């Protein structure tokens, strides 16, 4: 029964909505399109959120709480409408109102574009942190880039990835507010010279090219509270065209050229994951959002602190998310010295005490380096400052730490005529951290060992986390309701409370519902698969899922070769007992990453072979879902039985999809890598399936040699058969996979796929035997949900607050 207040709320909502439809479309509800229906709902929701937003901002101006600004070149925020509705506690009202108006709520939600302003885990992490901070009521803002085109849309045509540009702003975007009055000018190119002004040496910057940075602010709303923080995304625009025309003495063509060159800076997101680009435009992007963001933060700080910057670092933390915003160091020095007139030493103290740095990868190809010439040309003043930071740093190593020249050059920010951005970030920050225990250990012992020996106190570890609101509560509502009915609502804000679920481990009625929910989620995903790929899958089969960026180190290839092997076994022995499996893959490959695209093609070739072979009797199905993004993830994670986390040990810094799957009751099948190790510790060895080389073993082979993929090949006939199939025409018109064959056999299998193959096979067999014991499987799944508390991004954010920003 609905209470009178609730009934009134629904009626009020309905009339507001009917009116809003007319405003956005100029039509009556009955004639409105789905898009208009979405726009109307979005506007109503945004109005409510904006009221709380204004209030939060005003409150922050009066309380002296330390603010944190996350600088990141990516924020992979996902769709927002449902998040806002649920966090406002409007879910029931909106659902009922839509229903009573004869509208389909899900169809309306599906009109929203999913802004692809990030590549994968790194950008998604920032979105999770922002959501958690708002839910915890902490003053915590994001600073990034307003890309006009996000990550490309992936289509699969003839088994291959085809990239289509992503125009997420096509229909407008209702959740951002453009703030032209908070624009700033960012300067590129030009010349620097010294001048004596009143006896002091000052730098004069001339002939530069000014670009206007215009902020777009998005509200980040806390769950069931009234905190609304901001994500500020900067868009590059030409200076006022009139000014420019007069500046260029009426040269219209030049003015137009300037316009498109300015806009180019924020046109596209670079579609690389774990790879450093090295392009001038990328460096421009990095400086652009760092410069604009810092200028605004510093000027706002002055406004509220009587123009005094002395205690800036006590009140503000600037966080460098991976090396892309590492120019925060020299840019802050520039602002404090050139614009604010501070001395080098005073500026340095404030800069270093404000900055903190998180490293996200140890893959060498992802560690950014910029040619000195490029930096000097594009941002000459910044280059001068980097040189001076490096000179002083070298000097202190020589005098205070007593290092020799060889040791100093190994730690230098400038090496081989390149700026090493990780070194720059470390030298300019007071804290450096990795994103899981193993990763942080590798940073200390290997990647940044030289720095660790000098400043052990600067190094920390904070394991990543994910927001349970998006990745459990809003995307798996049936499980949410079961949990809440069983243990109350406290877990939503304190995920450790899920441990109380262990009380139900012997409760049959609970177990039945828990398993039914998983089945229902699998049915939902099956419908999606049918609709997208025209493949019918069996929801009773094991859903074995690997969804993430396609990369050699993540080893989708190992998974695919295992499927091919199973197929061979079934063909050789069609009557064997076989537990049906559905292998689901999704993920984008960087457009320039040939090998990753070949892996996608191979998965699709295997799918075609296996799915259409009558001898298999539908016992194996292989599905590659196109265009993996946050929204697709929200359908996939709740439907998984097995979470494939099979990176070569030591290569995956943390992983976060492992956590999303776990929260939704999937069993991890993984290597001892990244946060998998901590999942292992949390659930216990009985409730996870692990295999493969350890990170130490991998490092040993890499350093000492001793691994020969040919030897493994020669001693294993299953592997021989699979390898031949890659090149013998097995895949018909989809062709051969010579490059994959060569990488494994000719180039000795850099990622230890053949080395780990047998061990992986064994792990997969263990899964089969466990799955047959329904009680055991339920128990394992329950452990995974119950012990996922520590993988909440609430915990991660609080860890940063305690260990790194020292705000609590
Ligand atoms: C969580 C997430 C990722 C990260 O997945 P990993 O398996 O940790 O690499 C990538 N993309 C999207 C869309 C995600 O939601």
UniProtKB/TrEMBL annotation:
Record organism: Acetobacterium woodii (strain ATCC 29683 / DSM 1030 / JCM 2381 / KCTC 1655 / WB1)
Record's keyword annotation contains Transmembrane helix: no
Name assigned to this protein: Alpha-1,4 glucan phosphorylase
GO molecular function: glycogen phosphorylase activity; pyridoxal phosphate binding
Function: Phosphorylase is an important allosteric enzyme in carbohydrate metabolism. Enzymes from different sources differ in their regulatory mechanisms and in their natural substrates. However, all known phosphorylases share catalytic and structural properties. Allosteric enzyme that catalyzes the rate-limiting step in glycogen catabolism, the phosphorolytic cleavage of glycogen to produce glucose-1-phosphate, and plays a central role in maintaining cellular and organismal glucose homeostasis.
UniProt cofactor(s): pyridoxal 5'-phosphate
Key words of the record: Carbohydrate metabolism, Glycogen metabolism, Glycosyltransferase, Pyridoxal phosphate, Transferase
Domain of life: Bacteria
EC number: 2.4.1.1
Gene Ontology biological process terms, A to Z: glycogen catabolic process
Family statement drawn from the similarity comment of this UniProt entry: Belongs to the glycogen phosphorylase family.
InterPro entries given in the database record: Glycg_phsphrylas (IPR011833), Glyco_trans_35 (IPR000811), Pyridoxal_P_attach_site (IPR035090)
Catalytic activity: [(1->4)-alpha-D-glucosyl](n) + phosphate = [(1->4)-alpha-D-glucosyl](n-1) + alpha-D-glucose 1-phosphate
Residues recorded as bearing N6-(pyridoxal phosphate)lysine in the entry: 660
One GO term describing the cellular component: cytoplasm
